[in-house]
Design a protein that fits this description.
Number of helices: 8
Low-confidence stretches: 128-138
Radius of gyration: 24 Å
Distance between the termini: 72 Å
Helix content: 55-70%
């Protein structure tokens, strides 16, 4: 448990006969806060739909899942842009490992993880060099 949460709980605690009890209203508000779904704007839903279409066209698949919408909206709230998502997706697409696995692991949820998005955004695309056979006449 982090220090900020401990402080909040201590502030909300009521001491009766040397026993600590939490204020019921505080507990209800706290539970509602941690269990309530994130607020997602219509613009974020529209951006997510465009994201799914782009992924589908890029990898030749069809995506309809909605479970990573919350994580996608969180990345947008953190300041990530569509262009940055696009760059990360294209960098991952150029990776030999993903090409060999037929892009099996490159799902909508994959790029909504901040660590993967950051990693592939900063990756340099690897281009397979064609090996030319040359003859030496010297």
């Amino acid at each position: 448990m982090n220090d900020r949460l401990k402080t909040k709980l201590n502030e909300a605690a009521i001491v009766i006969n040397d026993k600590r009890y939490l204020d019921f209203d505080f507990v209800v508000q706290f539970v509602e806060k941690i269990t309530s779904p994130a607020k997602i704007t219509p613009e974020q839903k529209e951006a997510y739909d465009k994201y799914l279409v782009f992924l589908g066209k890029t990898f030749g698949k069809k995506y309809r899942e909605r479970k990573s919408l919350v994580n996608f909206a969180a990345r947008l709230n953190e300041g990530w842009t569509g262009a940055e998502f696009k760059k990360a997706i294209l960098n991952a697409k150029a990776d030999p490992h993903h090409i060999e696995s037929n892009f099996k692991y490159l799902t909508p949820a994959f790029f909504c993880r901040v660590d993967k998005l950051d990693m592939w955004y900063n990756a340099e695309p690897k281009i397979k060099e064609k090996i030319k056979s040359t003859l030496s006449f010297t």
